[in-house]
Amino acid sequence: MPRIPAKKTSEAGLFLKLFYRMAGRRYGAVPEPMAVTAHHGGLLRASAAHELLVERAMKKLPKNVWELAVYRVATQLGCSWCVDFGAMLQLHGGLDIERLKHIDEYATSPAFDRQERLALAYADAMTASPITVTDEQVAELEAEFDREGVLELTYQIALENSRARMNSALGIVAQGFTSGDACRIPLP
Fold first, then answer.
1. Per-residue confidence (pLDDT) for residue 184, from 0 to 100
2. InterPro entries from the xrefs (predicted)?
3. At what angle do helices 14-27 and 41-57 cross, to 10 degrees?
């Protein structure tokens, strides 16, 4: 149970009830971080708008690359909710989630290609404390993905660091999206 309980539908006004309904249709269940943030309507609206705008802005980087980098951040920070939700998003995006079992061996595993390895190493470097990103690493990423691709990757990794740290601080844990308990929407 999170440190701040989810706001119940019975406590919600019309806007929040509609928001919960849309989230439930999209994800199969209302994501608990949203339901916890619902106690602060302004932050919930800002967060939802931000997430949608970021999703629409992602045009340069291959989806498998940034989804894996985001997943790596979640595993590095130990955010079980983010790991669960991220695996579900990859599954619904048609990506192979079996290889996620080998994410710790990404540098040598044949399950990951060069682009994915570069992104995963960058996620590790950005998530380390202190950050260990090098000029050479960014130059290699820019040669592979171009400048806009590097910015998209950097933004996604930074955003997941924020999400995972917030969820962990609030005690939000796996919701069952990949077990089928929460995710009832059909695969595409």
1. 45
2. AhpD-like
3. 40
Contact by Cβ (8 Å): 149, 161: no
95 three-class SS: coil
Is residue 54 within 8 Å of 155, Cβ to Cβ? yes
Q: Look at residue 145 in the predicted model and tell me its pLDDT.
A: 98
3-state secondary structure 143-160: HHHHHHHHHHHHHHHHHH
Cα–Cα distance for residue pair 183/24, rounded to 1 Å: 9
DSSP state of 103: G
Structure tokens at 28: 């199969």
- Asked if 135 and 45 count as a contact pair (C-beta separation under 8 A), the reply is no
Mean pLDDT in runs of 10 for the chain (188 residues)? 95 94 92 97 97 97 97 98 95 92 96 98 98 98 98 98 98 88 44
Residue 23's closest CA among 38, 5, 43, 1?
38
- Residue 88 CB neighbour total at 10 angstroms: 22
Please state the pTM of the whole predicted model.
0.93
pLDDT at 180: 56
pLDDT at 178: 86
Closest by CA to 31, choosing from 54, 7, 59, is: 7
Which residues, other chains included, contact 38 with Cβ-Cβ below 8 Å and sequence gap of 6+?
6, 7, 12, 16, 19, 44
Q: Is the peptide bond before 130 cis (omega within 30 degrees of 0)?
A: yes
